[in-house]
Amino acid sequence: MIEPVWLASRIVENASIWQNNFQDPQRFSHFIRVHKVRFWAPHIFHLWDLGWVRAEFVQAKKLISIKDIDLLATNPEGDSIYADNRQLNTTKTISDVPIKQYYEETPVIVPYFHPFKYYVFWHIQRYMQLAISHYQIMNPASILYYLKTKSRFFLLGLKAKMLWSK
Description:
This protein is α+β, with helices and mostly antiparallel strands. It contains seven helices and four strands, in the order H-H-H-E-E-E-H-E-H-H-H.
């Protein structure tokens, strides 16, 4: 696997290449919604903050100290550029703060994503949505069974991925 710090440093060095069209959560959410993936900017930021996705790089208006977010450079405008070197799905943050409020309180940190990250969010959406067929709606007892089964497999999948990542 390519080391995130090495990759982020190459991205920063070659920022003028047109393929490096990295997008902040606002632009990225617009891009993926056009392609039928329903995540808004606060959701994207929160999924990144929880460690479900890794940003290509992170930009901050001031120096920050977050575990496994490594400083790469400081640009002439005074912004600091960081590599996201965190292990996925290892952040144990649980916030009682609503996502929108949380996003608005931390505008100092901006993760940037490559448009190809669309596929990661497509899989997250596919994994999180319930697919209830029309015929299952006719029998309410089958819906309850389906929901219990689906949630059990969802939790088993999360546990397996957590064990796999360790």
